[in-house]
Amino acid sequence: MLTLAASAFAAGTTLLAKALGTGVLGPEMHALQISHGRFLFAFIAITMMIAVMRPRMTRPDFRLHAVRSAFGWGGVTLMFAAAAFIPLSDATAISFLNPVFGMMLAIPLLGEKVGPIRWSAALIALAGAAILTRPGGSAIEFGAMLALGSALLLGAELIAIKRLSGREGPYQILLVNNGIGLLIATLAMLPVWQMPTAQQWAALAGVGVLMAMAQACFVNAMARADASFVAPFFYAALVFAAIYDALVFHVLPDTVSVAGALIILTGAGLLAWREGRRPRAPGSAGQ
């Protein structure tokens, strides 16, 4: 239930970002400003949660946090930009490639060895993404490439998360990540700043709060069950994205969208299954 809630909240952030980026709530807003709103209000929400819960805090690894936050900010910004060009279901499906890119980057960066099953899962997922780029298109193809760039950066972020895992508490990681991300987003947003309307302020707050709630739900879900059990439920975000798109923008997934999404989910699901069967290193329980 926590993971399903996280997927619904995460899809909601993309919905609001699309509304802001396409001019539904006022003048079209730049993806850099939308990303800033996401980090600003998420930081406020997480700070309030920590003030109430008072988790144990340790000395953070700011250098590693900065790397993770830079990749996360870049991935989120590209995802919000992609949502303005392509259906939410397409953008969400392509975002599921981030563990595939994370696996690939783990080979040179973490020295991990990848077997035939994991490579097969990666190739299947990438084939689905190739379908969603719709070769020969213009704006749609451009949006898909933005989403692919987002998945690549979020995959790189996973490498930093793996290094942080077990060293620091989950709420501390969320707080530091969103704090540094807010600093990066603020500096990047200044050249494109425009005064939001009242509706846009509300939507920006919604993006940040929903993202904070999604992160909190997912962190708590991961603390209560194995990642191999939890991860597949997050794919429900694709369903929520399609529903939101249909209700708000009257956009229904076409045959290409459904085919590409199913192929990506097949590859991502196979990868999640294989990760769940990998033996854990000694002392890695609970990470």
TrEMBL record:
The family database entries (InterPro entries) matched by this protein are listed as: EamA_dom, EmrE-like
Q: Where in the cell is it found?
A: Membrane
Annotated keywords: Membrane, Transmembrane, Transmembrane helix
State the source organism's domain of life. Answer: Bacteria
Q: Has UniProt tagged this entry with the keyword Oxidoreductase?
A: no
Membrane topology type = Multi-pass membrane protein
The lineage, from the top, is: Bacteria, Pseudomonadati, Pseudomonadota, Alphaproteobacteria, Rhodobacterales
Q: This chain belongs to which protein, by name?
A: EamA-like transporter family protein
UniProt similarity note: Belongs to the drug/metabolite transporter (DMT) superfamily. 10 TMS drug/metabolite exporter (DME) (TC 2.A.7.3) family.
**Keyword Membrane carried by entry:** yes
Chief location category: membrane
* Residue stretches spanning the membrane: 37-54, 66-86, 92-110, 117-136, 142-161, 173-195, 201-222, 229-249, 255-273
Q: Name one GO cellular component term.
A: membrane
Domain called EamA: residue spans? 2-133, 142-271
